[in-house]
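Consider this one:
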Amino acid sequence: MKHISDELKIIKRSGLYRELNIVEGTQGTHLEIKGKTYLSFCSNNYLGLANNPLVIKAVKDAVEKYGWGTGASMLVSGNMKLHEALEGEISRFKGKEASIVFPTGYMANIGTIYSLVSKGDLVICDKLNHASIIDGCRLSGADFRVYPHCDMEKLDNILKKSTKYPRKLIVTDTVFSMDGDIAPLPDIVRIAQKYKAMVMVDEAHGTGVFGEKGRGVVEHFNLSKKVGIIMGTLSKAVGSLGGYVSGDADLINFLRNKARPFMYTTALPPAVCAASIAGIKLIRKNPSLRKSLWNNMRYLKEKLDLLNLNVIPSESPIVPILIGDAEKAVDVSKFLYKKGILIPAIRPPTVPAKSSRLRMTVMSTHTRKDMERLLDVLRTVQNF
């Protein structure tokens, strides 16, 4: 096992060693860690629904009625009434014929991609897509091409030279998780139609945030009828856990019979499904949640523009401050931590070398006081 110890030493020397914080209370704008309260700007709980009283009540009611565990995969005996209800709720929310739920978003991406394409096919991916998309593409066995971030000319050129492939799949995040920018979805759809390629989108960071009804970036661009494969998570704006894919009935039935992460794992606890249903209903019925989030985003970004910080332009609640060097990013993060603010450093391999950063995320439940406190501390970081 010496090679493991040696590699750990290399990771530590490179400033890439990661350690866990133990959160002792609930997930919100303020977190309890080792008996101290920290102001958090690193959560994907964008709308604060992880602590919403209606979500908590839904969980309690579900546990009382259905117990906790499911005891089997959904194809054996783990498919309970709340799983069916959740899939129906997602389908109505996304405006699609059917949906399938996975235990995590990671599993949803892997299972879907390598079910749709295999050896002899082509899968194409944006360079900055989430790791679960990259892994799904690699595991599929299909020929794998990567285009530079949001480079539509390169995407077009790849497809122009790929007429030999019977099946072609383009996969993209709609909101890129480390930069906070949005995929040029109308152009991707146009190019896909030109070369008869399928389009699959990952709405992990778009659902609940974008679109008139909070359905995501697909709705934002009015492309619901043109994007046939919509993947997303229930662990971010929805405030729960799990992944899903929405599309037509044939696609979903196909995945139920082909996607190994769905077929060979125990189903989500029914109480988790209840939390997800409650979260989606709150998003649908309370646009004020989304309005508060966008107001906070605009306020913080306007104030950050006045500081001498290398803020990466963002179109979402994800606001990255580029540091560059991994060790320096860790040092800045530790400095913030000492000041009572939690923003972990994001380093390779999550981001490219020499692009380490502080990845801030805004929540609808942050107050102006919270943001002013953050800004006060960041002003001292300018000279760090």
